[in-house]
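Z., the sequence and structure:
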Amino acid sequence: MPDISKDLVLFNELVEVLLKDEKEHPVADRIESDELYDTIDLSLNESGMVDDDFKAVLKDVIESTPKTATNLFFNQLFGGRQSKAVLGDLLAVMLNNSMYTYKVAGPQVGIEQEIIRKSCDMIGYGARSNGTFPTGGSMSNYMALIMGRDAKDVNFRTAGMSKPMTVYTSKESHYSNAKNASFAGIGRNNIRYIKADSYGRMLPGLLEDQIKKDIEEGYVPTYVNATAGTTVLGAFDPIDEIADITEKYGLWLHVDGAYCGSVIFSEKYKHLVKGVERSDSFSYNAHKMLGTPLTCSIILVKDKRHLHESFSNDADYLYQTDGDDFNLGKTSFQCGRRNDALKFWTLWKSIGTSGLEQIVDQQFELANVALAYIRSNPDYTLYSFDDSISICFNYKNIDPTTLCTALYEHQVTVVGFGAFEEDTFVRLVTINANNEQVDILNFFKVMEEFVENNPSLVGMGETFQEQL
């Protein structure tokens, strides 16, 4: 039988390799995709490897994998590493519980439910609320859509669609909404994309106009997706104004806070989701603003009966003990489900709600550092705004797609680009709360030095301006 204690020693050795390499090389050496299989031995063979060779391959994999926890990673809507959350995730792997029944998960059920209960209290959902841990933000949005669909037509689950439904979301919302409409049987053609204002926020007046039009044409308006932190600009839709409309016309209101919904932990910034208590469902990702390991997504529902009505199904071979409140498989989309709650609980338990607040506030402080630097430097053009951790800018009119790609290919820093309306720009995400002011300023320093050492990039600015 394999000796796990020996493998844990190897794990610790490899972690030391990773931490040392992150410090010395914050950006991993890039391997061209067409050279990957020739560079690292990823083959699966009939015979196993001897321990030393196995360790060497693992070391190669570790050192070549993009480093998402360093102070030069600004590319995605996650980053950094919260050590107490890592501890919880490692324990979850060792325990290896599935979260569908109390019989096999025990106190882990209580841990998940405590997170959900506390989160519901924080947004003002009330005693009938509950939730679950989906596999990610896209799945959270899908579950919300299914509940909204079933709430509008109680026969949909058994008989299918009887009248064409319509759903509504901002043009700046997450791409999962289109996929989800297809999966839910509503159809991509029945999504209504509502125009956003100059800050990237859905325009409620246009939403109501579209709902009225659809009613007149015989459609059944069903569901509105509001966004708390759009993918590009980090904008917050006006939930209160949208809730006025959904309540008036009887639509389900879901608030997709996958990116920035964790502002609920901050006294200073929770006003950005003002009115969230009026929504029917709300989701946030602890693996984004709160820095837990991927994935850690939570969806909350104001009335838990919708979870049961849309997702419960009897299974005598599975649900054999305890009540429904402890058999979480009856309110989740999937059956077998890893324990994503423990890592969030170990973080929250160890630093408290006030510690989570500090994590969120730090990201906005870092964003303010970036904003101040850009606004004080005439070589930059700013496209974003206050109260966002997505900092969008261009430098010396250089084509942002070219600049970001060059920075990545030369292992300088990892940052992405985005677009809003007619503008394309670099998008710096200050979501790594382990960073400090010096790390944000260092990003600009290394980027500017790279441009200075590659003057041909500046020449691309004229071409980029002509394209605009």
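Residues 341-375 form the longest helix (35 residues). The chain has 16 helices and twelve strands.

Let me know what you think.
H.
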